[in-house]
C-alpha cells in the first residue's frame, strides 16, 4: 500500500478548492453576531477555519492557486441564487493566489452579495468531481482534488449530496467539511461514513470513504 507521501514524492499534485457557505442562516454580515461578520481586528469563524485547514493543504499544492467558490447567495448583477459561484466573480478563472488570496476575495465578495439559501452542496461537489473525472481520462492520474467545504449547518439537498459523494468516491478526490458555528451537525456525521458505509439514495455504496467532517468548535483552540 502506497502512502499519501509516496504519491506526493512521485509527482502527484494536490488541487485544493475551497467552497464557502453564504446562506442567510449565517446572519447578516453587518451584524457582529454573524458568522460572516468582518471584524476590523480579528478573523471571523469562517476565516479561522479557512486558514487553519488551508495553510496545511497549501504546502502540498505546488502552484498555490486555489479556486474559491461560494454557495447559497444571490449574486450580482441579476441577484439570482447560485450554489457554485466564483468568490472573485471571475467564472473563467476562479483561482486565488494562496490562502491570503482566498481571504481577500472572500472579504471583497461579502458586501456585494446577498446571503440567501438553501444550503445545497451537491453542485459544488459535482463541479470538482467533473475536474477530477477529466483527470481520470488522462490516464496519468497526476492530480488529486481536495474540496474544503465551510458551512454553518444543516444541508438541504442530502439525497443529491449522497449521490454526488458516491459518484466522487470513484474519482481522485476527497472532501473535507468543516462545520462552523454551533448548529446541530448530526446529519454531517452521516456523510463522513466513519460509522458505517454511506450509500446513495438508490442504495449504491461509496467505493471508499472520501469525506471527513470536522465540527470546528471542537478543535479551534
TrEMBL record:
Looking up InterPro entries in the UniProt record yields: Copine (IPR045052), Copine_C (IPR010734), VWF_A (IPR002035), vWFA_dom_sf (IPR036465)
> Where would I find the VWFA domain in this sequence?
13-215
Cite the SUPFAM superfamilies for this sequence: vWA-like
Pfam families named among the record's database cross-references: Copine
Question: What is this protein called in UniProt?
Answer: Copine-4
Q: Which organism is it from?
A: Ameca splendens
Task: Tell me the gene name.
Answer: CPNE4_3
